[in-house]
Amino acid sequence: MDVRAHLPHLPPLWREGLFGLEAAALLRSPVWRGEDLPRGAGRPVLLIPGFLAGDNSLGAMTHWLRGLGYRTKSAGIRTNVACSAALTDSLESRLECMAEKTGDKVAIVGQSRGGIIARALAVRRPDLVSGIVTLGSPTKSMLHVHPAVLGSIGVVGLLGALHVRPAFTLKCLRGDCCLKFRDELRTPPSDDVGFVSVYSRRDGIVDWHACVDPFATRNVEVRSSHCGMSLNADVYKIVANSLSEFAGEDDAALDDDIRWLKAA
User: Fold this and answer.
1) Which of 123, 159, 225, 230 could form a disulfide with 164 if both were Cys (CB 3.0 to 4.6 A apart)?
2) How many CB atoms lie within 10 A of CB 98?
3) Contact at 8 Å (CB) between 181 and 197?
4) Contacts of 256 (CB under 8 A, 6+ apart)
């Protein structure tokens, strides 16, 4: 009997050390310069960072999207450790303000835990969300992550129990405060809301299987580390074409990119 078949998948944490190489490759790529990519025409995009990260972690993507003509807004997060329900409520208010100000539905790009929040928002407010792109987000099972990350979750939960705010508590995982949030994660988004989930078998933080959402419009595989998805040229290209598709433009370019990635 093969014992390995009964062991949980352990993400290759060492691959996160390639983060710098991905950033360097992006800056040399024509994708960074916006060549042959669809333009944003002022459409709104909300960006949500991952666990333990802040808005600055998506700073490069924000700058790039603005260069493409999108009207971006950060999540207003310094460190993403708040209770999921409270965070989703707060971002719902921000989403409402963006939609009212622009007169248009908002696209959301979320990395890791930020993508989980984006998925809940898409289910809750399909009237305000045109589509979401999740980057390495374990939407199928939030705790399918590297043991080191589970340890960090435990530390944050302890801080929350000691009333250090805005840290969540471990009660959020099973308690009533996040009951609605957990229900939203189990609910399929509306057919009117686009949903592209980007995942990588090289992800050193999250078990990639947990990122393949059965309700996604597309699950797209890339070659990237987990942290590197915020600075990966292939990811950026998928984001640009996905946002264009959410706006009702031709999705042929996105299909071509997916075929290229699978063949590469």
Assistant:
1) 159
2) 20
3) no
4) none
List, for residues 89-147, the tens digit of each pLDDT value: 999 999 999 999 999 999 999 999 999 999 999 999 999 999 999 999 999 999 899 88
Half-sphere exposure of 198 (CA within 13 A, CB side): 34
Domain formed by 3-263, architecture: 3-Layer(aba) Sandwich (3.40)
What does the alpha-carbon distance between residue 92 and residue 86 come to, in Å, rounded to a whole number?
10
Which residues contact residue 178 at a Cβ distance below 8 angstroms, ignoring those fewer than 6 apart?
83, 84, 85, 172
Question: 194-199 and 218-221: which strand pairing?
Answer: parallel
Residue 11 preceded by cis peptide, ω within 30: no
Assess contact for 80 and 50: CB atoms under 8 A: yes
CB 193 within 8 A of CB 122: yes
User: Which SS3 state, helix, strand or coil, does residue 180 take?
Assistant: helix
CB 181 within 8 A of CB 84: yes
Q: What pTM did the predictor assign?
A: 0.89
